[in-house]
């Protein structure tokens, strides 16, 4: 994998991870207002963005497994932080939406 490809992958991790996190936060706000179906739709969008980010991460891992060493840079660490935060926020958003749903019953 060329350096340019790696840099593009890292940027995709940041963009898609950030997008997933933002959509998950928006879902929480929708659920808080009682817009539960819209919140669930936003969670679906967040999952799609997270899957994109995860697929880019998988490409990096597969490349490294094949012997293509990945340089650990501050940008790479930042990208991984975005991905991990997106996963955490998405998990919490799904739980919060379930709670709001229960509260509305």
From TrEMBL:
Keyword match Magnesium: yes
InterPro entries in UniProt: PTS_IIA_lac/cel, PTS_IIA_lac/cel_sf
Alphabetical GO biological process terms: phosphoenolpyruvate-dependent sugar phosphotransferase system
CDD domains xrefs: PTS_IIA_lac (cd00215)
Membrane-crossing residue ranges in chain numbering: none
Record's GO cellular component terms: cytoplasm
Cofactor note as given: Binds 1 Mg(2+) ion per trimer.
One Pfam family per UniProt: PTS_IIA
Lineage top rank: taxon: Bacteria
PANTHER family: PTS SYSTEM N,N'-DIACETYLCHITOBIOSE-SPECIFIC EIIA COMPONENT (PTHR34382)
Name of the protein this chain belongs to: PTS lactose/cellobiose transporter subunit IIA
């Amino acid at each position: 994998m060329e350096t340019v490809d790696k840099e593009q992958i890292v940027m995709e991790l940041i963009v898609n991870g950030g997008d997933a996190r933002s959509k998950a936060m928006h879902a929480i706000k929708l659920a808080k207002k009682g817009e539960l179906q819209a919140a669930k739709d936003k969670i679906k969008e967040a999952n799609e963005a997270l899957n994109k980010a995860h697929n880019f991460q998988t490409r990096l891992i597969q490349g490294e497994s094949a012997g293509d060493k990945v340089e650990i840079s501050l940008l790479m660490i930042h990208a991984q932080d975005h991905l991990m935060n997106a996963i955490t926020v998405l998990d919490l958003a799904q739980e919060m939406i379930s709670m709001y749903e229960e509260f509305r019953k």
